[in-house]
Write a structure and sequence with these properties.
The chain is built from 23 helices and two strands. The protein is globular and about 115 Å long. It has a two-stranded antiparallel sheet. The protein has a domain of about 60 residues. By secondary structure, the chain is mainly α. Helix 13 runs antiparallel to helix 14. Strand 1 and strand 2 form a beta hairpin.
Length: about 575
């Protein structure tokens, strides 16, 4: 009861602040306000330490979403983490995570951004290893080291900005694009954002981070850790050059396609949702690289809603399945958990872009803008193919979880009787249904009317329908049995062998090479020709010298004969 009261107090505070920030953001939009605050922390002998904060409609609405989702996650955790001995530590870590994200959102200064950025990386490591076992430790180390690469790039940005005399990047965005010497800042920021948002080749840490508790996954994959890179690039969007945007478009399209394809061959429920997050991050970055930063931000907000709900529903299903995450052991769960599966399917349909749900207002607008824009055929093909793959793995998930009979132990007793989990999911469900239309009216100043030919207008609907049919029918037939298909599954399901290249490839194989070099060189040939060989040679010389010291008659006679022969030969030749 004590822990319930702690959860409830934290929920009330976070929920109240989120509502306040969302109302403030609407006020800032209507009045076109920007508040820039400089707080002089220390001023001593002409040495000034300033803390700067930027409050505009974008930072306020994003902070409102972060606090709203985190409040519901805290309420949800009151039952999900019930009985945990370290429950206070869990609450403190989640609050530190939220504070770090808010610190990053309101900072127009690279120093304070690094503090929030590094705080996200450190706290995410602590949350991934929360369940203390070998798998969690490995996943946490992979997550921390991958994010550490982005921290290094931000440190390089800070050192490079010494040329300006200030780290307030917000004042120099237009200058970065003109000054060729400072374009390196854009490259470094782009690389840092790619590491935090898990784009190719830094994608392998995102499914590994599923070792964290499910409420943490709902928070991380919706509005905090993985969205930090997207948010930073939205702020830097003005300064990105056309060549950098082309590179970003290629990488993000490949990430979107790779993760959508991999999710169709995955059987772990949480990893399927994690790969769908990676696919949506690629979609956000690809539309951002085309210059539509507001569309990317809008899809970022809508994705946060239905992805948090998706993870919450998955957490209830995993909880009722006695911590089993294999979708092949599920089936017919809608008979046992009607409300949870209803929320799961509504969030799944929002992910697919089902009409008039939250995802529809952002994804359909993005695809129509792509159809209208001047974009190459490869990018156009990747956008629509990835959309089809999204619907494909969503209907595959629907088939495995909802259809047929229950495939696990018949003694299972499944019931969703906890009110706190139901309340948190129901509040998110309301925004998943109505949030898209509400926030599209708020964010966009005028209605978007896009005139397209009938074929392009119906192409989104056609691709989605085809993806749903393929996802339901093909995986219902279980045709993945022969050797060739198993190789295809191995390639697609392992994210194109990316973990083997960018995790084992940079950790296990270099360590193995070092071991072999140590064994064969340091303890082998170098040892033989080096210290051991020197010791052996000196021992042989000392033994030979010792032989002379024995005053043996045979040694003297042998030496005398050799000397006589030497003198005889010398006399003959002279």
């Amino acid at each position: 009861m004590k822990y319930m009261s702690i959860y409830f107090v934290v929920f009330i505070y976070l929920f109240g602040f989120s509502m306040l920030l969302l109302v403030l953001s609407i006020y800032f939009i209507l009045n076109d306000l920007i508040v820039f605050i400089e707080w002089n922390i220390i001023f001593y002998n002409s040495v000034m330490i300033l803390m700067t904060f930027l409050f505009d409609w974008m930072s306020l609405i994003f902070m409102g979403f972060v606090l709203f989702i985190s409040s519901l996650v805290i309420l949800y955790s009151s039952y999900y983490m019930e009985g945990d001995y370290n429950i206070n530590r869990f609450v403190y870590l989640v609050l530190m995570f939220v504070v770090s994200m808010i610190f990053l959102i309101v900072s127009p200064n690279m120093i304070s951004i690094l503090l929030g950025w590094d705080g996200l990386g450190l706290v995410s490591y602590c949350l991934v290893i929360y369940y203390q076992n070998i798998k969690s430790y490995n996943a946490g180390m992979l997550t921390a080291l991958s994010n550490r690469v982005g921290d290094v790039f931000l440190l390089l940005v800070i050192s490079w900005m010494l040329n300006f005399g200030s780290w307030n990047y917000i004042f120099y965005l237009s200058f970065y694009k003109v000054d060729y010497n400072m374009m390196i800042i854009n490259v470094l920021v782009l690389l840092a954002a790619m590491t935090k948002s898990a784009q190719i080749p830094f994608s392998s840490w995102l499914p590994a981070a599923m070792a964290a508790p499910t409420p943490v996954s709902a928070l991380v994959h919706s509005s905090t850790l993985v969205t930090a890179g997207i948010y930073l690039l939205i702020r830097f969007n003005i300064s990105l050059s056309d060549s950098l945007k082309m590179i970003l478009l290629l990488i993000s399209c490949l990430t979107m396609f790779m993760s959508g394809l991999g999710a169709n061959f995955e059987y772990d429920l949480k990893k399927i949702i994690a790969l769908s997050t990676l696919s949506q991050l690629g979609l956000m970055l690809s539309i951002l690289s085309m210059g539509y930063s507001m569309l990317a931000f809008f899809h970022l907000l809508m994705h946060a809603l239905f992805k948090a709900l998706l993870f919450m529903c998955a957490g209830v299903v995993i909880h009722c399945m006695k911590n089993s995450q294999d979708i092949r052991l599920m089936g017919g769960i809608s008979f046992h958990l009607p409300m949870v599966t209803s929320c799961l399917m509504i969030s799944n349909f929002a992910l697919c872009g089902f009409p008039f749900l939250a995802g529809y207002y952002s994804k359909d607008l993005i695809l129509e803008v792509v159809s209208m824009s001047y974009v190459n055929l490869f990018s156009f093909f990747m956008f629509y193919l990835s959309t089809g793959l999204t619907v494909c793995y969503s209907f595959r998930l629907f088939y495995y979880v909802m259809c047929g009979n229950f495939n696990s132990n018949s003694l299972f007793f499944m019931i969703d009787d906890n009110s706190f989990m139901s309340y948190s999911m129901f509040l998110l469900l309301l925004l998943v249904i109505f949030g898209g239309s509400i926030f599209s009216w708020v964010i966009f100043s005028s209605p978007k009317l896009i005139m397209l030919p009938m074929v392009l207008k119906l192409l989104t609907l056609l691709i989605s329908t085809m993806g749903g049919v393929i996802g339901y029918e093909v995986f219902k037939m279980h045709l993945m049995s022969n050797r060739l298909n198993m190789h295809i599954i191995g390639f697609c399901g392992s994210m194109w062998f990316m973990p083997y290249i960018f995790t084992y490839g940079i950790s296990y194989y270099p360590l193995l090479l070092g071991y072999n070099l140590f064994k064969n060189l340091d303890s082998g040939w170098i040892e033989y020709f080096g210290s051991q060989g020197l010791i052996y040679t000196l021992m042989m010389i000392s033994k030979f010298n010792q032989l002379w010291q024995f005053n043996s008659l045979s040694v003297f006679m042998t030496f005398f004969i050799v000397l006589v022969l030497f003198v005889f030969v010398f006399c003959i030749y002279n």
